[in-house]
Design brief:
By secondary structure, this protein is mainly β. Helix content is about 5%, strand content about 45%.
Length: about 700
């Protein structure tokens, strides 16, 4: 069997924001629901087989749990929307735990009553009250309340028994119970050896931030690792140090908890930045654990935590980007010194190489956000030294103390940070706001020299559909480019920096050329109209070939088309008097083409490699070669696609090739045979694929 063309390198996702959505299997695999998919944390193949059917509920079953008994039988407990909880196959003594919004945990003992119990002629003995009930055909059972555990300060959403373990020929159930609460703590409970009284054994949790606590918890089969999933979908993992017996936070995967709208590689291809409808901007980079050769991707910074759904971003330098959200303002962010130092440590890159000629002393240490604000405020070294003295002198009744800023604490990271640090200590300072649009932002683009930024907002009229150009040195508006009548959905500058391409909901594209003389204004060079348009539905996406000779458009009409000066061999815009026309046959991809991107490197046969993202979540690879005969469609060849496990489960929102050959984090001459493709989906997932271009 031939090796797959696309190899999944990284999947970024998080748990759904609901209780009972995470499970830790006895084989060590963590499964959790993410959007409408089930994610498997460890790469193992699982086969689920139906071995029994329990009939009895009259409504949908919303929760099920099971445990093995010492007698090798299985107890299954099920809860249903028919307001009943049912137990299946009950023999011997069982322990049940329940949690509630009263902040308490109750542990119950369930056991079978003997057929006849002798009357004890002894003095009065203090006993727990037994609730006795009968099960038809199975005899009499009793339930007693063993203990009430009070330790949480808010609703308890999740509890989990330590899984049973096999010792010799028997199965033993350790009496350890894990609980998770909205108070952002997990507690491990167990009975004391001497008294048998249930006590708190371990308490772990998060401090600070604006999260709303934990939705559930799980314990590893060996009991040495515990996991919680939070209100915002983040996973929190702790492990027990076998040498010291202390519980420490561990590195864990993370991702957006809503649709991912846009992504961008940094100019060197060392990391990606993503934005999503969860109102966050996240930065992911490869990392190698100490003593291991395997490279894994992790989130190391959350530059922006906003109050509006994020929509778009573009890089304007290695450590600077512009982002747009469901607001009329564009915001510019620049990396602080603490991030640059941490990134150097994690990526094992010399600090001087990252900064070049820039002086790190001029950068702020980090950023903080006011509790009732949206702008990340720069924090300098002097702010950190005066912070503690201000806290001591201020009166708690003052407004500034009741609504404190999310104070920044410098980090010296050598591994990816915890969720707590991501929320509070990895923000980037906001250096500029750009005003000019009348409606919510929709798309952004920057030229190859990172000197000009183009922006567009949602529009239902032509006067609001104009593209605005901004200078990255002064951050002043340079020009307004009116052409379209509806929202501009995506833009792309040509690699040579001379042309700006825009596609729109009005089913047309426009091409703007930069004059060679100062002040370098852009003028309309070519465009399609309603009469000349080839696409019959909204054009979702566009991109350029690396030689600036061609550009591609993809549409809801399932068509992908490549445009240029056909037959000339010149870059678009360099042939005076030559019109821009389709240079390819119309490619029907079978579904709405929501994203498209051209690989910056040619295949071995000198053909162009394109990735097309579809509304159904699939990503398809095509090769295209210029041809004089466009009627047969022979200029296109399909060379690969994602399988069911690799594909997104909802619409592909964005595709971006790594700007450099090779796989990020890897080294060696053989890396030039590889390219990497990043994708963002409405299914909350960011994926990175390795593709061996030399084999296509």
């Amino acid at each position: 069997m031939a090796a797959p063309v696309m190899d999944t390198c990284h999947v970024s996702c998080c748990a759904n924001r609901t209780p009972n959505v995470v499970s830790w299997g006895r084989g060590g695999l963590i499964a959790f629901g993410t959007c409408n998919s089930v994610a498997l944390y460890n790469p193992q193949v699982l086969i689920f087989t139906a071995c029994a059917v329990c009939l009895g509920h009259s409504g949908p079953v919303c929760a099920v749990d099971a445990l093995s008994l010492s007698s090798s039988q299985l107890l299954v407990a099920s809860a249903s929307s028919d307001s009943t909880v049912k137990l299946w196959t009950c023999n011997g003594e069982l322990w049940l735990a329940s949690c509630s919004q009263d902040c308490l945990i109750r542990v119950w003992r369930l056991f079978a009553k003997a057929a006849t119990e002798p009357v004890q002629q002894t003095d009065a003995v203090l006993k727990m009250k037994e609730n006795v009930f009968q099960v038809s055909g199975d005899g009499e059972f009793a339930v007693t309340l063993e203990t009430v555990l009070a330790g949480h300060e808010n609703w308890v959403y999740g509890i989990h028994w330590q899984p049973p373990c096999v010792k010799g020929d028997s199965v033993e159930q350790p009496l350890k119970l894990l609980s998770a609460s909205v108070d952002k703590t997990m507690i491990l409970w167990g009975p004391e050896e001497d008294s048998g009284m249930w006590v708190e054994l371990v308490r772990v949790g998060e401090v600070g931030g604006n999260t709303l606590g934990f939705y559930g918890c799980q314990m590893s089969p060996d009991g040495f690792m515990i996991l919680a999933h939070a209100f915002h979908g983040a996973l929190h993992l702790w492990h027990c140090d076998s040498n010291q017996g202390e519980w420490r936070p561990s590195v864990v995967i993370s991702g957006h908890f809503n649709a991912v709208q846009d992504l961008s590689w940094d100019p060197e291809g060392d990391f990606i930045i993503t934005v999503g409808s969860d109102q966050t901007t996240r930065l992911f980079t490869p990392w190698t654990r100490n003593g291991r050769s395997e490279i894994t991707w992790h989130e190391i910074s959350r530059p922006q935590i906003h109050g509006y759904d994020m929509q778009c971003l573009t890089m304007v330098g290695r450590f600077q980007f512009v982002s747009g959200a469901d607001e009329k303002v564009l915001r510019v962010f620049k990396a602080p010194r603490n991030f640059v130092e941490s990134f150097a440590n994690i990526s094992c890159t010399p600090l001087e190489k990252l900064l070049g000629c820039n002086d790190i002393a001029d950068l702020p240490e980090g950023a903080s956000t006011p509790a009732l604000g949206l702008s990340n405020k720069a924090v300098f070294q002097g702010d950190l030294t005066s912070q503690s003295s201000q806290q001591d002198s201020e009166d708690f009744n003052s407004l500034s103390n009741q609504y404190k800023e999310s104070y920044f604490q410098p980090l010296k990271l050598t591994e990816p940070p915890t969720e707590d640090d991501l929320l509070q200590n990895t923000l980037w300072p906001e250096v500029q706001k750009l005003y000019g649009h009348g409606f919510e932002m929709f798309c952004l683009a920057s030229d190859s020299e990172r000197t000009v930024v183009a922006s567009a907002c949602k529009a239902s009229k032509s006067e609001h559909a104009a593209i605005l150009l901004w200078s990255t040195t002064s951050w002043k508006q340079l020009q307004s480019l009116p052409c379209h009548s509806l929202t501009v959905t995506q833009m792309a500058f040509s690699p040579n920096g001379r042309l700006l391409l825009a596609v729109s909901r009005d089913r047309t594209w426009s091409l703007w050329r930069r004059d060679k003389l100062p002040p370098l204004p852009f003028s309309l060079y070519a465009n399609t109209s309603k009469d000349t348009a080839v696409h019959t539905r909204i054009i979702w996406s566009c991109d350029w070939s690396s030689d600036s000779k061609y550009f591609v458009t993809s549409s809801r009409d399932k068509k992908v088309i490549i445009w240029g000066h056909c037959g000339s061999g010149d870059s678009v815009g360099e042939c005076e008097g030559e019109s821009v026309t389709p240079c390819s046959s119309v490619l029907d991809v079978g579904d709405s083409a929501t994203a498209v991107s051209i690989c910056p490197y040619l295949c071995s046969d000198q053909s162009y490699l394109l990735a097309v993202g579809l509304e159904n979540g699939k990503i398809v690879l095509y090769k295209w070669r210029p041809s004089e005969d466009l009627s047969s469609g022979s200029d296109w060849s399909r060379c690969g696609e994602t399988d069911a496990c690799q594909s997104h489960t909802l619409t592909v929102k964005r595709l971006r090739w790594r700007p450099r050959p090779g796989r990020a984090g890897h080294g060696g001459n053989e890396e030039r045979a590889w390219v990497q493709l990043a994708s963002a989906g409405a299914d909350h997932v960011v994926k990175i694929f390795n593709i061996k271009i030399s084999a296509l």
